[in-house]
Write the structure tokens for this entry.
Amino acid sequence: MTTTVHEAGEDSSWRAISLCVDDFGLHAGVNAAVLQLAALGRVQATSAMVGGPAWAEGAAQLRALDATRLEVGLHLDLTECTLDSQLRSPLPRLLARAYLGQIDRVALSREIAAQFDAFEQALGRAPAYVDGHQHVHQLPLVRTLLLAEIARRCPQGGLWLRSTRSAPYAAHGDARTAFKSAVIAGLGGRRLAALARRQGLAQNRCLLGVYDFTGGADGYRQRLQRWLQAAQPGDVLMCHPSQESQVPDALAGARQAELQVLAGSDFSALLAAAKVRLQPLDLLLK
């Protein structure tokens, strides 16, 4: 698959990016937000946690949607909703184990395959792309086994991998966001990109949407404006919106604030002011 990015529209000043909602399947509130935004044409991708409590019900809803307009990817999860509970690990511990070479290779390989199987069995197709919950897909050994599984299942490629490449121009004036984005990218992003190129797998250009989940709706709207103004063709803007849910969720407030902005009446105006169009990334990578 080629990684050439085409700009949207005849006016080259307009830039095309993809907006991706993470954590589909985590709970019904996230699922409902994805369906709401998809109906509005404001989301082009969603990343599925196949071990999530709301995955089975949500997958049935996704099957009814046009897969060419909403890409569904595998949100590889090793920290929150693994299929093998023995492999589940909080992110700090997982990071330490990954960099110290202490992850059980056989168990990890089995978990990655099982998550692919669960995705394919529920949707009847392979994922359009793969990324990681808390970006675990780029960690040592995880990336190696993940790419091996992709090569086994998709020897001709046909899917893309999320790059966590930092977009420093998008965090201007926000030191905490810039630092967090750089840290995420530094936890294996460059090595994953090299391996992906070797395997002929495409990636997005940069990852937008990193922040500390503070600021409420007004803060999120300001960040969104900055991300859109800075966006370059082929970037992915990740987000984590949710409708209200009875399920305990540490990010509930931030998720609902994001949805308020993304589903708001001025969202189209924000895009137009930044000269940004939203398209599935697969179309931008052809």
In short: Residues 24 and 48 are 5 Å apart (CA to CA). The chain has eleven helices and nine strands. Residues 1-10 have pLDDT under 50 and may be disordered. The beta strands are 15-24, 45-48, 71-76, 129-132, 160-161, 202-203, 207-208, 236-239, 276-278.
